[in-house]
Amino acid sequence: MKKIAPLALSVLLLGTVSAYAEQPTTEGTEQVEKAGTFIQHRGNITAVEQRENAQLFTVGQDDNVFNFYVDDKTLVFDEHGNEVKLKIGDTISLSIYADQPMILIYPPQYAPPVVIVEKDDTANSVKVAQFDENFLSDDGKLKLNLNEESVIINTKGEKVPAKELQNYNAIVFYGPTTKSIPAQTAPEKIVVFPKLEEEVVNPEIAPEIQAIIGEDYKEVDGKIMVPLRIVAEELDFKVASTGNGAIISKGALSYTITRGETKYGHNRALKHFDVAPALLEKNKTYVEYDFVKELLNHIK
Length: 300
Known about the structure:
By secondary structure, this protein is mostly beta strands. It contains three helices and 23 strands.
C-alpha cells in the first residue's frame, strides 16, 4: 500500500525559507511563476503538548494561530543542516505539500515532513523543493551548482549521488546566491527524503482521513477500521481514556466508546456499530471508518 502524506492548508510564505532571500534583478526579463511542490508556514512556537505518538506545537497567538505535529519521522534542522530539538520560543518554518487534502478546523493543524528552525545570527537560507535533471527547483527560482565536493545525504546519513537528486525531495542548505534569474548557488549541504506517493490507497476513505492515517487501517468483517485517537485528535476532538475505551468530545458533542461493545453513547442517546471497537494493535483502539466520517462531518 502507498501513503499519502499529511495535510496542506493556507499559504503564509512561498519559496525559500530564511534570511538570504532570492532577489533576481535582471531587467526586461519576463518571469512566469511556477508552482512548487511545497508551501511554507512560519511563526514562533508558543506552546507544546505531548500526544500519544507525537508532540503538538502551537505557533502564534490570539487570532493568528496554527498547530503542527512532530513525530519520529519529521525532519527538523537548523539553517546549517544540523538536527535540532524544537522548544518554545523558536522561530520555525514548516514545509507542507502544496496539493494535499485539508481539514477545515481552527486552528489549522499540520503534519509537516520538514521543520526548519530559523536563527537571527545566520545569513544562510534553506530551500525545500524538488529538482530536475539540471538541478533547477520546481518553482524555477533556484539552480544548484554542484561539484564533487557537494554533500548530498539521505535521512540515514548515507551519501547519495548528484544524479539521483531528481528522484527525491530535497532540503538544500546554502549561503549567497547570484542575482540572476534563476538565482544560483553552491549548496553547503543537501538532505534528500522520499517523494510523496500520489496514489490514494483506498478510494472508500475520504482524502482528509487518508491524509491522517496513511496505511494504518484494518478490515474486520467487511468493515474498514481506523485508529480512533489519532483521527479524533487530528480533527480537534478531546480524547479521554476510560481504561477500556474512550470519551470523545468537542463542545456539546460527546461520544462514549467501549472496546468489545457494539453500543456507544452519543450525548444522551445510544447508537450502534456493526463491528465493535477493538484493540487491533498494542495500545491502539480501532473503530469503524463510518464513525470517524461522522466526526469529520461535524467540522465541515
